[in-house]
Amino acid sequence: MTTKIIRPLFLVAFVASLTFATSLRAAIAPAENLLSADTLGFFTVPDCTALRAASKVSPQMMFWNDAAMKPIHEKFMAKLNEKFTAPLEHDLGVKVADFMDLPQGQFTLAVTVNGSTGHDDVPPGILLLLDAKGKSDSLKTNLAALQKKWAADGRALRTEKFHGLAFTVVPLSSNDFAGIFPKRAPVQELGKEPKVEKPGELYFAQFESLLIAGNSAKVVEPVAAHLTGGSAPALADDATFAADKLAQFRDAPTYYGWFNGNKFFTMLTESPASAEGDPASVMPKFTAAKILGVTGLGSLKSASFALREARDGSALTLHLSAPEATRAGILKILALAPKDAAAPVFVPAESVKFSRFRLDGKQTWAELQKMIAGISPQGLAGINSVIDMANSFGQQKNPGFDLRTALMGNLGDDIITYQKAPVGDSLVALSSPPTLFLVAVANADQTIDAIKTVAAMITPQDATKQAPREFLGHKIHTIALRPTRNAATGATTTSSLYFAASGGYLALSMDTAMLEEYLRSADGKVKPLRETVGLAEAAQRVGGTGGGMFGYQNQRETMRQSFKLLKNASEANSAMKMFPPAFREWVDFALLPDYSAVQKYFYMSVFAGNANADGLTMKVFTPRPPQLN
After folding, report:
1. Radius of gyration of the chain (CA)
2. What pLDDT score does 348 carry?
3. What is the pLDDT of residues 388-408, one digit of tens each?
4. 549, 341 in Cβ contact below 8 A?
């Protein structure tokens, strides 16, 4: 997002906390009844008071506000004040802290087409709606002071009326909030004069307890019509949104958002005709229409999310509206078959992460080839050339070798991953915990031969020479990977990939003990993950495990290793280079407390997904930690 959009958006958001009506009459309509029909997407909190109350007792906020987190909390807030709050207060002449509790009703931020074609200089519309309810009276003086400061700064304020509602119009400049956002350099094309950025404007008005603020007349005019009884198409009239509202936004979400795929992708694909005289190119032209068509994203009607905070935990729902009849490309790949995705009995209880996807490998490969060919036939030809090269290489030892059959043709419809806690507290151990990957294959011997053939082409000559090792009737194969060098310390790390076949799966890991444990699991002595207390109940909150996708995370243990990793990084200056410099200024991980002091705020989380005739859905549920009940 460019500063051309960010600056007016930022000012809109701030004015939202300062400008409200002085009278309360009727309840303000929900966002979808106020937003225009050309809305590209929006985010809304229907009740800020309810959100504020839920946040106070949420495990995440309780963790952040815990006394043990005070040192790192205070450092972060001090940096926030230095870099953000203080420059803002200097520019506006007000105290931010005085207005933090003013949002009481809905808070909505929306983006609209605003007359843009997606290929011109017209920015998208930015609109903010904020219901102050009973807090507006205390803002009259502050609003007057703000307007007085704008006038003193030389801004020529004016008034425009839409449907009888008077809007104050404030001209903006590129210097607004220069202490927070860097000044944007003029855009200049080769051989042309630099483009002069058009000055922006902020429109705002008050209707009863509602603030309306936007970056153009086209953005605020439909809202004024909806509020004053005028006739204008609203987002609520959109059939796709209406269907999503009924299915996704029931039961009072704490907050939710919606993206208009129909309108957005149509705008992108309506590209202007190429200018005459454009030089010919041997490279294929990657137009938006072409990309959206071959990837299947053009058939995405909408995307939405809804989060619900409840006493027993937090539930998030993500939904892609994509009818089965028109799915192609990525959306067709993601539409997993309704098959069991529960943790098999061999997945051990001490696993800290687990995921299972019933992804059809052969269908995925076929769709990927279609996408590549649709974007660039030369690209698919290049891939086929590499495969043919691998075939020629493999046929030197095995005349019947065919990579397409041995690898892609053997892929099944099951991918399982699980991870255990790191062994040791070194930075290398913490950043590379033991992980096992399982891929269902029809003929494991052919697949192993294919992997070794490809590895022999891209790794040092002796990387695949090691003979397979016998273990409980199975062969463990080893491929030595290229050494990696730490740029900060100069240290070189060597590693190997180990793999074996068992139970219809090809098992792969960079930890030989992890692989051996899987091969040993047939003895029935492993306590399974599926017996973890609370897991079955949590799974039911996301629709069960029969939709083709399921995952689990032991957040208490993953956060434990995250604390170790971050504190380890703070002690080794070279390790801190993994974080951007700006981030290092804000957070000092050496100030993190002992994990035992805050572990009560973490428990587990699960996710599951499914597909039906209307679209794809994923749900995430994070139960409230028992220690907080």
Report:
1. 29
2. 96
3. 999 998 898 889 899 999 999
4. yes
